Amino acid sequence: MSAIGEPKVVQKDRQKLEDARKKLGSCAKALRARMAKEQVEVWKKAEAEFSVQKMIWQSLSLQRGAKHQGTAAMIESKLEFAVQTHTKDLAAAVEALDLCLERNQGLDLLGVAMLESIEGIKAAALHADARQELAKMLEKAAEDGAPGRARRGRRRSLFFCCHFFAKARFRTENVLVLAA
Is residue 3 in some structural domain? Predict the structure, then answer.
């Protein structure tokens, strides 16, 4: 028995649980930070590509005339909307980007780099959703002192979607097991 009247085994278990809670909280915080960083990076790249794309459209309007100006203007307005609203409403921004891709079909008004930026944004949005859900699961597990109600298979699919490396997955799953 220890000085406070609890067996040392119970104290060690409580300490392990407290350590696991702290690790779960820091993992959730790291996930959110990674999510924010990825969003900033993909949107920064897209904004740079959008500036280049505008110059390309100006050149194309001289070559192709008024034929493509209406569609290019619509795509440009959707891209501007997406850039301006992505921090407030990511889903609406991604929807606007999807409309741009739809309108661009067969017209080649968007350059390869712009198309890649849009695809990067869409992938980052999927990652953001998965990371957000996983961060919530980690926080719930930290609060409850248990891994929550998420099944192991669901955790694995979230890890895959978040592009976690095997080492990070192993560490986080061990923390979840310790918290059980």
Answer: no
